[in-house]
Amino acid sequence: MLDLRERPFTDRGSRLLVMAADDGSLWVARALYETRLSDTTVLSGLRVFRGEEELRVRRALPSRIEFDGGVVLAFADAETLVLTGSAARAVWDQGEAAVDGAYTLVGEGHHPDAPERAAARWDAWFARLPDVREDLRERAEMAWWTLAVNLVDIRGRESLIPSKYGYVGLWNWDSYFHAIALRHADPDLAREQIRILLDNQREDGLIPDVVHDHGVLGETTDLPRSDLARLAQHVGGPPVREAVPVTKPPLTAWAVWKIHEAAPDTGFLEEVYDRLVRSQEWWFRYSDPDGDGLAEYLHPYSSGLDDSPIWDHGPRAEPPDLNAYLALQYDRLADIAQAIGRPGEQWRERAQALTDLMVSRRWTGVRFTTPTASVRTPLDLMPLFTGRLPAEVADQLASDLRSPSFWGERPVPTVAFDDPLHDPDAMWRGPVWLNVNYLLIDGLRRSGYGATADELTKRTLAMVRDGGGLYEYWNPVTGAKATRATSGFGWSAALFLDLAITASS
């Protein structure tokens, strides 16, 4: 069931959203990149009458909105909304029309069978949902619906966007998380998300942050003005004047290999291998300004955690997650090279050397540090992702995760519970994000802490199951949607699904 607020009526491939207004009427807007829905209204004030009696919305399903009296609103296609019924009248702020058979409210053509065809499309999509436990089924169906409606055409290619509420573009690491869920039922579509990004890779190897309707976001000169203003207010240090590359954390090879594990395709591995190598090399050639062998994030957006207090001291930082991802990427490049019969390029040796360098330069004997920030975040624990740490270091990180700083009924806060900067409701400053939990679960298993990974999986699934929706992030104290979090968020849907599928197998 859709509530027409957090879960609008929309369709796969459509930019149109039908939502409930505060006065009980419906309004329709179009989802566009970096544009508020209030600025893209198609029509507003929609109500349906029979005679003088208003026919209220009885329920909203993925395939249709049902009004009292048998009137139905359905998508005939991505651009066409159709009202069907008899002896009714639709009234909206911009006009009115009789509904006796079928009336095309938005779009063109005559589509009397729109509700039946929409139902068949959705039945076919839900039939592909992998099996999950019964207690997780309702939320899994919501997640599977979320992934479908977040698929839109961007520059001629079907792209899974994070949300039609404000995130209408194909974001870099979001796409990797999306692909991890899609691989279970539509591996070709999962591969397409990777291809879109790699097809927009720069010559120097950088994979852009966003592919959107008007081009790509690959450096600060491409940022919308609203982003520049927000960053100037939030990020410490002097403003950045020169053009700075903008990307996202290096998880491409990791995602490619996860797709391959579920649906092997050596042709795809051969297609992307050289581009993955170029991306890996970019980080050390262009994103290591002090030349110490440890890459840095040159811009807050490149970390994916742009509102984290890590950035309160300036626009550049080297939290422990980045080089952990890069070390794991070396191992995944080795896996791919072996699968396609290419020379190993000493990828395993490079993985271990980078891990050793992280330990020697950034391990204090107690924790991994971020040179410019003392705040404690779960990024301190992310070197577990490598699966290559010395046993005593890995044991300390696993123990820290299970400590009161990071562990609770709903772990893991994005700033430690006992850090003075912890705010359970502020983006990246305390709420739980599913991608952080998922990456930690992945790293725990790789590092040999299966029981902790299982417990974190259990608590994460319970939080989402009981929290009311698939949000951008959750308040770790209440388990509810954090105040400013977006609803219907793609990677939350995708990663919940992957964890639920794994837990149900």
Automatic annotation (TrEMBL):
Pfam families: MGH1-like_GH (PF22422). This is Mannosylglycerate hydrolase MGH1-like glycoside hydrolase domain-containing protein. It comes from Nonomuraea longicatena. Keywords: Glycosidase, Hydrolase. Transmembrane segments: none annotated. Residues 167-492 form the Mannosylglycerate hydrolase MGH1-like glycoside hydrolase domain. Belongs to the glycosyl hydrolase 63 family. The keyword Transcription regulation does not apply.
